[in-house]
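Q: Sequence in, structure out?
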Amino acid sequence: MSLRFITPNMHGVLDYIVGTTLIVAPGLLGLGASSPLAFWLSVLTGLAVIAMSLITDYRFSVAQIIPFWLHLTVDAVAAVVFLVAPFAFGFAGLDFVYYLVNAAAVLIVVAFGLTEQPESDAAAA
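A: Exactly. Output:
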């Protein structure tokens, strides 16, 4: 049985929205009060999300270079970085909360994007 209800195509749409939000939100929210890294970590992660989305093997990419399972693995690593960063770098206030909320959101999306069978096998089933 699969936990998946976020399909690769839905994930692809979410990636572009989330990537853009990670780039824009720090300026709108005034992130970086406790550390400039709180601002730039979000912006750079947003750029990386969009870049990775452009080369992931799903409908909304430009080149299907990396498999979806690898994309989910990178997302999970990013969530762990977001979870650890506030503690490791001494983020406080909104900077702290922003990263914890984002870490939780990414972990949830990854968990509900997991599948027990490769996408090509799932489509045939």
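The helical segments are 8-29, 36-54, 68-88, 93-111, 119-124.
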